[in-house]
Each structure stands twice: as structure tokens, then as C-alpha cells.
Design a protein that fits this description.
Elements lengths: L1 E6 L7 H4 L8 E2 L2 E2 H10 L5 E6 L3 H14 L2 E4 L6 E4 L8 E6 L6 H7 L1 H4 L4 E5 L2 E3 L3 H11 L3 E7 L6 E5 L2 E6 L8 E3 L3 E3 L14 H11 L3 E6 L3 E3 L3 H12 L10
Parallel strand pairs: 1-4, 1-8, 4-7, 10-15
Antiparallel strand pairs: 2-3, 5-6, 8-14, 9-16, 10-13, 10-14, 11-12
Helix pairs in contact: 4-7
């Protein structure tokens, strides 16, 4: 199963970091958050990724081009550019499709631009700015048991987020943040069928504000409730929180050796 990752946004709320590099390259414990997300999916045996690029895409492309060499000792001849790899360390065995989805394309538009690479099979989707210990196996089983086009992982979070109203497992509507901060919110970590592409108009379509609302109206969107760890990285304070968890060996998303 393929995993699509949206990695093209400008990350303006984390400008202290994203003025110099794209948000997916912001590091947690010396590794880009994109690497952490991919390692998490890989721990479930999901190793083919389609990454939607946009803002500062060159940094992400360069990272994957060089990833093979980062873990090895090298001898470089500056005369002819030849490289000899010594004591090569095997890196993650991933297939990575890097797709330019435009600089200002909205989230729905980015997803739709990935359609030719996703094909006709069920796929997973997430953003490149949050970490979780969501049970991906359980998420997929839940999705298949409901037979809908889309499943969203919902999580509890502070009231600064808008929230999702549920009717059983069906998503009924999207509302402004509740006063008590106790609503379910969109935690990403989706499972989707290719039929969702017909709910996306074009580049200016917002997945969250338009496509998901249309899916909900057609009762084609269900919610997988996740009550354990989930943390976005929208601010410098949130980045530091993730850094502390990693440094202390308490990162819930680290499910690999």
C-alpha cells in the first residue's frame, strides 16, 4: 500500500525554522520530521511513499538524493567527481516518489495531483507536520470494515482547533472550536479510496474545508478515534516538546529499533 505525504506547505506558523528550510526538513533529534513520519509507516511494513512537494522542494529532493551517502564513509575525487563508498551502512529500504505539486496549490489540489502515481488502490495519506502512535493496522481494518471512501483519524486536542461532529462512526459535520476544548479534531492519518479524487475540484480546493465536507455530506467519511499520543508541530514550542520526548527516550512514535 502506498503512503501519500503532503510536504509542500510554507509552514508560516513555524517561521523561525521555515524561513530557511521547508517544514518537512525541520529536525527532531537530528532527523527531519519527514524521516520520523516515514520510519513510523515503515515500521508497519509500508515502504512506498509519494511525497507532494512545493515550498523549498529542492531541499527535500537533495535530502533523498544524498540519503544513501549520509550513512556511509566516502572518498571523493574532486578531479573527476568519482565517489567511493566505504563500509556502506544499509539505509531504509524505501521507494520514494517526489512530485512537484506547485508552490501555492491547496491541500486538495496537491492530493489530486498525486492521482496518477497512486493508481486504483486504497492508499494512506498524512501531513508532514505531526507525529502519533496511531495503530495503523487497526486504522486500516476499521476503514475496510466500513466500506466508505475515506477514513480520518480523529484525536483530542486543545480548543484552538476546529472540531468534527460524529454520528456513531460517521462524520456528520465540521464546526468551530468548542469552548471547552474537548471536541474531536482532524489528526490526519487517513485511509482513502481512489474515489475521493472526484471530490476534489482542482488546485484551489481545500481538502479540509471542501472535499472532506462533501464526503461527510455523502456519508462517505468515517472517523477512527485515537485517544493516545498525537502532537502537531505548528510552533517552536511544539517542536521543542517533540525534541524533549526524543532526547529523553520517551517518543511514543518510535516503534522501531
Amino acid at each position: 500500500m502506498k503512503v501519500a505525504i503532503l510536504a509542500g506547505g510554507m509552514g508560516t506558523r513555524l517561521a523561525e525554522e521555515t524561513d530557511h528550510r521547508p517544514k518537512p526538513m525541520v529536525e527532531i533529534g537530528g532527523k527531519p520530521i519527514l524521516w520520523h513520519i516515514m520510519k513510523y509507516y515503515s515500521s508497519y511494513g509500508l515502504n512506498e511513499f509519494i511525497i507532494a512537494l512545493g515550498y523549498k522542494k529542492e531541499a527535500i529532493i537533495r535530502y533523498f538524493l544524498d540519503l544513501h551517502y549520509y550513512s556511509s564513509d566516502l572518498t571523493i575525487s574532486t578531479g573527476d567527481g568519482s565517489i567511493t563508498v566505504h563500509d556502506q551502512q544499509r539505509g531504509p529500504d524505501w521507494t520514494v516518489h517526489l512530485i512537484d505539486t506547485g508552490l501555492v496549490t491547496d491541500t486538495g489540489g496537491r492530493i489530486k495531483r498525486l492521482a496518477p502515481y497512486i493508481g486504483s488502490s486504497t492508499f494512506m495519506l498524512t501531513w508532514c507536520d505531526g507525529l502519533s502512535d496511531v495503530d495503523l493496522g487497526g486504522l486500516l481494518a476499521f476503514h475496510r470494515s466500513h466500506g466508505k471512501l475515506a477514513t480520518v483519524t480523529t484525536v483530542r486536542a486543545p480548543g484552538r482547533f476546529g472540531y468534527i461532529s460524529l454520528d456513531g462512526d460517521n462524520v456528520s459535520c465540521f464546526r468551530e472550536k468548542p469552548a471547552d476544548g474537548n471536541g474531536w479534531i482532524n489528526g490526519a492519518f487517513f485511509v482513502l479510496e481512489p474515489g475521493v479524487f472526484k471530490y476534489i475540484g482542482g488546485d484551489a480546493t481545500s481538502w479540509e474545508r471542501e472535499s472532506m465536507e462533501r464526503l461527510a455530506a455523502d456519508t462517505q467519511l468515517v472517523a477512527f478515534r485515537h485517544s493516545s499520543f498525537w502532537q502537531c508541530m505548528d510552533t517552536l514550542r511544539e517542536k521543542r516538546l517533540l525534541e524533549e520526548l526524543w532526547a529523553e527516550g520517551k517518543a511514543p512514535w518510535k516503534t522501531w529499533e
